[in-house]
Amino acid sequence: MAYTISKRPTKKGLAFDLYFRWKGVRYRPLLGYNLTKEQAEEAAIQMIAKIQRGDPDDAPRSVSIAFKDFLPLYWQTMRVKKRFDLARPESIIETHLLPRFGERRLDSLRAEDGLAYITARLAAKAAPWTIRREWNVLMRILNLAVDFDKLDKNRLKRVELPDVATRERVATTEELKTIRAKADTRSLKKLAAHEYDPSEFWRIVTVALNTGLREAKILEIDRIWMRRRDDGWWLILPPSRSRLKQTPREIPLNSAAYAALRSEIVHVDGRIFRRWTPAAFSVYWQRLSAEAKVADLHFHDLRHTFATWLQNLGVPLEVRAALLGHRLRGLGNDQLGGESMTAAYSHGGYGWDQQLREAVTLLNTALLSYGLSYGKQTGEEIAQQKVANSLERREKVWWSQRDSNPCLSLERTEKDEENQQDKPLEPSDES
Length: 431
What we know:
By secondary structure, the protein is of the alpha+beta class. It is built from 16 helices and 9 strands. The protein has helices at about 35-55, 65-80, 85-100, 110-125, 130-145, 175-185, 200-210, 215-220, 255-260, 280-290, 300-310, 315-325, 340-345, 350-370, 380-390, 410-420, and strands at about 5-10, 15-20, 25, 30-35, 190, 195, 225-230, 230-235, 250. The strands form 3 sheets. Strands 1, 2, 3 and 4 form a 4-stranded antiparallel sheet that branches. The protein has a 3-stranded antiparallel sheet with strand order 7-8-9. Strands 5-6 form a two-stranded antiparallel ribbon. Helix 7 (about 200-210) packs antiparallel against helix 9 (about 255-260), helix 7 (about 200-210) crosses helix 11 (about 300-310) and helix 14 (about 350-370) packs across helix 15. It is elongated.
């Protein structure tokens, strides 16, 4: 007579459950709380005897609720936490999880069920990263059910997920140029009441490369968010709706970002990219990336590209964090919070704003050197481009890789120019 006694923590104490199969039926009755080993064994023997006698009070019962019945508690918890945007998990639950697990009891879910779900999604040609996002939502629900004593344990947590071929989440200049070239070949497309303009598409990309904002936030930019100050244009953002996905309070706009946000048709207010929906833009980005043969490059990777370029240009960590809206955490064993505490006590000012503007201006210089700028170049920007590309080696008519480094300092460039001026002219063949 094989049986198993399992333990689980509850608000009433340590609960002891019996697992016993009799005549093809599975029984999971509660034996009691905070029992000793001997008491649990004695209670198990008495419960098995009742089950074998067929007492009506000991009919098999489920200790958990259905998957769909637990969702209201899940949504209530997520809204209280304000951990992330609820639109994506809501779509995953309604589209994939409810049709498959909605009527199932939580304690009836086994590892085999999870493996069958993954196999079905792979057969439906779902991408591995998509399956992982769906699986994370399912795990969050089951783990929360365990926390609320609606489930004894999550039996799906050890299911193996499909491997993902990852790439470095930074776009190369060649990839961006190829995508832009494909966008230039596209014509204006009308679907229902929406018009999708390829030139406007690249304006959105330009804003991402020069501000580091997420796709959803860029599509929400309202004209009234743009403010002009003594040092130039700024983008004043509303508070973030999510505690996890923070956004900066304000971002200085360099000339490329300002040109991309300045529409030819002036609106008093309203969204600048009002003709684009998030779904339409995502599809457009995926199609252009596929045409350009750029594999596994997501629009969110432009945010990583923005941060990486600033790092390569020598922009300090705290400036990068401010532009991205990230919070610096304390380092080591500092109980007071380290850098995060210092950041909380620092409230910025004119000097800090100048550091932010210098960072995005330096980035615009690098983008000019790579030919990824937007709008017309001013005389000052052409001079900055010369600094980013270094001095042309006219005697050899080529540029070295080191000279094309956008991190090149202004001092070295000026020194090279002085050397060229001081160098005596060589006699020509004609003379």
